[in-house]
Amino acid sequence: MSRKHHHLKGAEVSCCVKYFLFGFNIIFWLLGAAFLGIGLWAWAEKGVLSNLSSITDLGGFDPVWLFIVVGGVMFILGFAGCIGALRENTFLLKFFSVFLGLIFFLELTAGILAFVFKDWIKDQLNFFINNNVKAYRDDIDLQNLIDFAQEYWSCCGAHGPDDWNLNIYFNCTELNPSRERCGVPFSCCVKDPAEDVINTQCGYDVRLQGELDRQKYIYTKGCVGQFEKWLQDNLIIVAGIFVGIALLQVRSPCLYIILLGNIHMRRLCAFEMICLLKTNNVNGF
Predict the structure, then answer these.
(1) Where are the membrane-spanning stretches (predicted)?
(2) 191 partner at 20 to 30 Å CA-CA among 1, 15, 232, 274?
(3) In this predicted structure, which of 36-45, 173-182, 274-283 has the lowest mean pLDDT?
């Protein structure tokens, strides 16, 4: 009886693991809820929630999808991890571990495929960027994303300013009635440090000029090349971030497996104790 009692005492659930996982996941859960809320609010502002068919109307990429998908995944995982750890719910704990393991496996597979089929990936990236150039004026969030990328990487278009011929507002065809004809977005313009107010018309007619004259006013390098250069210059930082995320994804399921093991061991010991008590009662009777 005393040995069994001692065995039961040794099978307690680790409070450190339990409350660490609870605290970590409640933050994760709240962040997911915030991302999801921002995404839904953005769609409500654009009228998407009142007309769901408009989700597929945009020819390019809608950045709100990032908030919806990432926020949704974080919300589900955070909920499962938080409640599972607090209530010691084995179903939610298993769901969290399997779901996170699946995400890690998909990321690993995507990384391997991207390395093996890097030329195909590059072609798809060019196709993706060109579609977004075409849809530049169709969605304000996409427009802001492209402007941010061009300003941050000091670039213009996928491979150069002439990529903006793909857009109906900026192309150089004679039939184009747009005032922005043969121009580029303001985010392509070389910034003048003396200007406090952004000149949104700085790119008008700039592609009517020669290559050397353009360089005085706009960035002439493409964003694909500039992004590749940025990756090479910041390779250690980028690799460190990915390794950190990977370690976090591997470590979390391990902690949950430890917690699951503690829960199962405690339940097994409790079952053994009940059986022992029943046996002693029968023998005593």
Answers:
(1) none
(2) 232
(3) 274-283
Q: Tokens for 6?
A: 């001692």
Beta bridge partners of residue 189, listed in sequence order: 218
Distance of CA 251 to the CA centre of its chain: 20
Three-class secondary structure assignment of the chain: CHHHHHHHHCCCCCHHHHHHHHHHHHHHHHHHHHHHHHHHHHHHHHCCCCCHHHHHCCCCCCCHHHHHHHHHHHHHHHHHHHHHHHHCCHHHHHHHHHHHHHHHHHHHHHHHHHHHCHHHHHHHHHHHHHHHHHCCCCCHHHHHHHHHHHHHCCCCCCCCHHHHHHCCCCCCCCCCCCCCCCCCCHHHECCCCCCCCCCCCCCCCHHHCCHHHHCCCECCCCHHHHHHHHHHHCHHHHHHHHHHHHHHHHHHHHHHHHHHHHHHHHHHHHHHHHHHHHHHHHHHC
Q: Which of 16-20, 42-46, 175-179, 240-244 has the largest mean confidence?
A: 175-179
Distance CA 26, CA 149 (A): 33
The vertex-237 CA angle with 231 and 238, nearest 5°, equals 50
d(CA 28, CA 101): 17
Model confidence, pTM = 0.72
Q: Are 20 and 48 in contact (CB under 8 A)?
A: no
Per the CB < 8 A criterion, the answer to whether 136 and 180 are in contact is no
Kindly state the average pLDDT of the residues 251-276: 62
As a residue count, the chain comes to 285
Q: In one letter, which amino acid is 268?
A: L
